[in-house]
Amino acid sequence: MKKSVLEPFWRPVWNAVDKARVRKARQEAKAGAVVHVELVRGEIWAQVRASGPRRSCQVALPLLAHYEEHIEAVAKWLAMRPDWMAAHFAGEWDPEYVAFLKSNRLDVLPDDSVVDKLRWGAKCTCDDSDPLCVHVLTALLHLIWEADEHPLRVFRFVGLDEELLLDAAHGWTARWVRSTKADSRGAGATDPTTDPIEQVTDAVSAWNVAIWLKGAGTNPVGRLVPHFRTGDRME
Q1: CA-wise closest residue to 67 among 39, 92, 95
Q2: Which of 6, 40, 103, 140 is most buried, with most CB under 10 Å away?
Q3: Do 93 and 85 touch, CB atoms closer than 8 A?
Q4: How many CA atoms lie within 13 A of 53 on its CB side?
């Protein structure tokens, strides 16, 4: 397994529990103990195979934040950067994507309050009295490793399903391209010889991020809207 991008951000959790418990969870996660994950009613639910008389445990993890109402805003951020979506499908974390998440303090990356959030909000059907049981840690590691392999899955931690997010990003790009083409036809500027892929790329690149941030930027965490440089790059 290649080095995890996300595990270091969760170090407060690993430091808060017994190292033997973390090792056991790591072994279970590597062995494929998590057999199902889904977003349900503002939580992440997972089914985790268990040893002993219980064949499996049901785990519920609290979200780090709730972005469900802001899926269109997040989709716009991604549409600004088709290279990030390409990196997602390639299973790679673009360094600028990581910098974007960190610099805008997006809650997909935990802060020091994450241990308290898990202790208060995590649930498991096992008999362990500690909310940070092996099954909870196993489910958490599984989610982290899946996001390592598919970067947009990091938005699960704030309640956004990967497929719905991608659909919204593609839909927003398609609407923008159609409106751009319509404007071009109205101005008599359509070039029928231009490659369709180039038209899409040019249309996305033409989006004026500064105007969007000034007039309609959405701030899902109550702190910052995402910052880009001119030409769809970050500040």
Answers
A1: 39
A2: 140
A3: no
A4: 3
